[in-house]
Each structure stands twice: as structure tokens, then as C-alpha cells.
Design brief:
Length: about 525
């Protein structure tokens, strides 16, 4: 049996710093010892020698105790189900019930939010102390065997964002996570001396695998940044202690605004410090080209944009060494099989790949060792998500000069209006270049004549030259000069903010709901 490598750091790393949180540095030896002890506590409470795939939900803020808990669940043979601190009780309980959790773990005030749910369901609740170095179970010696956890055992259930229905539990095994990690260690050239500043949520692949598991598998250090604050983040990036940074486009946009508001000397120091980092990555949503260009202007970094999703981990990436093209997600990562398939046609070649004309778009389909096992207890939906071993992502893209450019989700970002197939992302990219637009979202709303009417929700830039309520009137002719007529939004709305999930990804169905009474510009 091949044993999981996710929680077995080499002995030579024992004294190396693994995690920095709340001003305290914790070594790999400390992480290993504390996770072993917590695993024994879980097994003792359950009166078993192996959790044998039992689901354990855990809720806590990002930090050392999160990593200890994750490793402890794996060491005990359980399946980790990370819960989102930002979710209301109803959504937390949905995940707890859907995953059929056998136990819950919480830390601090955040974690105590699920204590009542545990009591109502008659399952154990383990409270982890948040004091520095605390949270260990008393009276349990750090001795004796723990179960041998095979690489093919399920390791984690992450829940989708629910943009196309109720969130589904995505099951990945230890081997699949290891394959994902190996691909990124190779592609992004992780080094043992790296230190990543971690500011991402820890209930999604981006924060868990890319920014946490990867550095810990490389022998590097993870420095948790706490609650995101643009000024404090700039100071950390400029400290000379950070070599890698990963964030979503919204964070980069907030950092740019903080830089614009800073004094000249502070700007220079921030730019110089950030410019010394080895790697900066953007993902989880499309990176606006203006943000890409402005970030390069002030830091010298061309952000590395990549493409992934809960079910496949990372699939595509701009190169670490090589040209990083704005508006694209690069090429398939090591170990990833990828094809574009024209939906709705019967023209299938002998190898199962449909023929696409140059420049023609198609659905991204992926296969490889990192692709997930199943949707938890949803066999029909699992079967429908695959075709001949290829996972159907539902995302549409075009291949341009060897680089893939995303057009968006077929369900929400590919609009069909008046017989045309239109990319919402293309329109959004254009709108963001207008000086009076801070951000926007383009959706389709039902229309008897057009099938879908293109609608744009726009966040005005503070200090716009005139009243924000008149912005649609100014944008309409401006867009008409730059896009084909059938791509011009026919309904506009000015908003203070856009509905987003915990990863700051815009929730298109919620945007559509804003247009119950569509408004056309004069």
C-alpha cells in the first residue's frame, strides 16, 4: 500500500519554520508532533483505531491550529471537511449535514458557532484552544501507532460555490492532492527557502492546496496574514521576508487603490519591496487586463494567471519562465490532459476530440491524476460530469497562438442574444478600461425577442466626473464605439458593490436577480 505523503515531512526539516501565525514561528517538528497528538485525541474520543473515512468538519480562522487540525484528521484516517468562517449558520449546517460529519472541531469564537450544531446532531464537538501553543489534549501520550493511511483513501471534501445549484461536495483522495501538488511544485518552481504570505480563505483549493499544501510539501514557510488589510499587506510584501504571494483579482485591485492613496515615499518603498518577490499569482476569477498592466507598472511583476476549479485543482497556467500574456490562462500544467470540444455537434474524431476550426471556441475538458473522484453521494451527477474519462468543466475557451483565453462559464458567462454567442468577460474587460468604472459584471436576463438581453451592473469609480446615476448614459455610446452592436448591454444598473462569495468571485445568478426591472439607458 502506498502511504499518503501529505503529513510526513522529512526528518531533516524538523527545525525548519513551517508556519508563522500570530507572531509565532512553528517548526515542522512542532507541526508533526501536535498533529499526531490531536489525531490520537480524535481516535480516543471515537473509541476506534482508525476513523476509516469518517468526515470531520472543522471551523477556525486561518493559522497554525488550522494546519494542525487538517493534518490530525488525515493522520487519524478521516476525511477533512473545512468550513467557511464567513458562512451563516444555515450554510454551515448544510455542509455538515450533506457531508454527514461524524465529528466537528472548532477554535475560538469562530469555532464555537458550530458547537450547537454538534449538540443538535448528537455528534462530538472538539474545542481547540487558541492560545499560543495551546489546544492539546491532556493526558494522551505522544506514543503508539496511528493508522497507515493509503494514498487512495479520500482525504478531503470541498464544496463548490453553488453558482449552478446547491453546493456539491467534491471528494479528492490523498493521491489526487499529491498529483496536484507535484504539478505546481514543478511548474512554479517552489523552493525550500520560499516564504508565502497567505491571505486566502481556507475552504477552497486556491488557499488550501496552492498556498498551503504546496509550500509545506516543498519544505517552505507559510506566513498567515490575518484579516486582509491593504496597508498591512503592502508592508509585509515590502518587508523582504516574503518571496511568494497569491491572491484573487479583487485583492490586487484593493492593493492598487491603497498604493494610489499612499504618500510618495511609501509608494516607492512598497513598489521596491514587492518587486523583490520571486512569484506573484492571480486566480479564482478572471484577472482584468488593466489590473495586470497597472501591477506590472508599479511593481515590475507580470502577474502569473492560472485556471483551475474545485474538481480539477489547477489545469492551466501562464509560464513561470516565459511570456505571461494578459487576458490568458496560459497552457496545460504538467500532468494535465486538456482538450477543447465543440458542444452540441456530432463531428467527433476517432480519438474522441472534436475538430475545432482555428479560433473557434469550445468547452474545456480535463483528465489527469489530480481530477476529483466523485461528487459526494451524487452518483448521477458524477457520471454526468465525465465523458470517456474526461471531466466536463462547463468553461469555454479559445486557443490563440498557443495560449488559452477563457470566455467564461457556458452557463452564465456565455450569453446567447439574437442568435449570437457572446462572451460576458469580453464586455467586462472593456468596461473596466473606462475611467469612471471601478468594476462590473455582465449577465444575460431573459428576453422574449432576443433570448437573452445583455445587462451590465457597474460600480462607479469614486470621484467620477459627474453623478454616478448618469454613468449608463455615458457608457452606452462609449461601448457602441468599441463593440459590435449585438454585444452592447441593453440594460444598465449602477451598484455600490457586486454580490460575491468568500473567494471574492462574483455570483452571476445574484447579479441577474438585481435586474428584476431592467433599465435601459436613454
Amino acid at each position: 500500500m502506498t502511504v499518503s505523503s501529505l503529513f510526513h515531512p522529512p526528518r531533516e526539516w524538523s527545525a525548519r519554520t513551517a508556519v508563522i501565525a500570530d507572531g509565532v514561528a512553528h517548526t515542522y517538528d512542532d507541526l508533526a508532533a501536535r498533529s499526531r497528538l490531536r489525531a490520537r485525541h480524535l481516535l480516543a474520543e471515537a473509541a476506534v483505531s482508525d476513523l476509516d473515512g469518517a468526515r470531520v468538519g472543522f471551523l477556525m480562522e486561518p493559522g497554525f491550529q488550522y494546519v494542525v487540525t487538517q493534518w490530525a484528521i488525515w493522520r487519524a484516517g478521516g476525511i477533512a471537511v473545512p468550513l467557511c468562517p464567513d458562512h451563516p449558520a444555515r450554510e454551515l449546517e448544510y455542509v455538515i449535514d450533506d457531508a454527514d460529519c461524524a465529528a466537528l472541531i472548532g477554535a475560538g469564537d469562530t469555532g464555537r458557532r458550530i458547537e450547537g450544531a454538534a449538540q443538535e446532531r448528537g455528534i462530538p464537538f472538539h474545542e481547540v484552544a487558541t492560545a499560543k501553543g495551546g489546544g492539546l489534549a491532556p493526558g494522551l501520550p505522544d506514543a503508539g501507532p496511528l493508522p497507515r493511511v493509503g494514498a487512495d483513501r479520500p482525504a478531503m471534501i470541498l464544496y463548490t460555490s453553488g453558482t449552478t445549484g446547491r453546493p456539491k461536495g467534491v471528494v479528492t483522495t490523498h493521491r489526487q492532492i499529491e498529483a496536484h501538488i507535484r504539478s505546481l511544485l514543478d511548474a512554479w518552481e517552489w523552493e525550500r527557502d520560499d516564504r508565502i504570505l497567505h491571505v486566502l480563505p481556507l475552504h477552497h483549493t486556491h488557499g488550501i492546496v496552492n498556498a498551503l499544501c504546496c509550500p509545506l510539501q516543498a519544505g517552505a514557510s507559510v506566513a498567515f496574514g490575518g484579516s486582509f488589510d491593504p496597508g498591512a499587506t503592502w508592508e509585509r510584501l515590502a518587508s523582504g521576508e516574503i518571496s511568494v504571494f497569491m491572491a484573487v483579482p479583487t485583492i490586487y485591485a484593493k492593493l492598487l487603490r491603497a498604493w494610489d492613496a499612499a504618500a510618495g515615499a511609501t509608494r516607492s518603498r512598497w513598489s521596491r519591496g514587492a518587486g523583490a518577490l520571486r512569484l506573484m499569482v492571480s486566480g479564482s476569477a478572471a484577472l482584468p487586463v488593466p489590473v495586470f498592466e497597472r501591477w506590472e507598472e508599479i511593481t515590475g511583476h507580470r502577474l502569473l494567471e492560472r485556471y483551475g476549479m474545485t474538481e480539477i485543482g489547477m489545469g492551466l497556467s501562464n509560464p513561470y519562465d516565459g511570456e505571461r500574456r494578459p487576458g490568458t490562462v496560459g497552457q496545460p500544467l504538467p500532468g494535465v490532459g486538456l482538450r477543447l470540444v465543440r458542444p452540441g455537434t456530432g463531428a467527433v474524431l476517432a480519438d474522441g476530440v472534436e475538430a475545432l476550426e482555428p479560433g473557434e471556441s469550445g468547452e474545456i475538458q480535463v483528465r489527469g491524476q489530480m481530477v476529483f473522484s466523485e461528487y459526494w453521494r451524487r452518483p448521477e451527477e458524477t457520471a454526468a460530469a465525465f465523458r470517456d474519462g474526461w471531466f466536463l468543466t462547463g468553461d469555454e475557451a479559445v486557443l490563440e497562438d498557443g495560449y488559452y483565453r477563457l470566455l467564461g462559464r457556458r452557463s452564465v458567462d456565455i450569453l446567447k442574444s439574437g442568435g449570437y454567442k457572446i462572451s460576458a468577460i469580453e464586455i467586462e474587460e472593456l468596461l473596466r478600461t473606462h475611467p469612471d468604472v471601478r468594476d462590473c459584471a455582465v449577465v444575460g436576463i431573459p428576453d422574449e425577442d432576443w433570448g437573452e438581453r445583455i445587462a451590465a451592473a457597474v460600480i462607479p469609480e469614486p470621484g467620477a466626473e459627474s453623478a454616478p446615476e448618469t454613468l449608463p448614459e455615458r457608457l452606452d455610446p462609449w461601448v457602441r464605439e468599441r463593440l459590435a452592436r449585438y454585444k452592447v448591454p441593453r440594460a444598465w444598473l449602477c451598484v455600490g458593490d457586486l454580490p460575491r462569495n468568500a473567494m471574492a468571485k462574483v455570483q452571476k445568478p445574484a447579479v441577474q436577480a438585481l435586474f428584476d426591472v431592467p433599465r435601459r439607458p436613454p
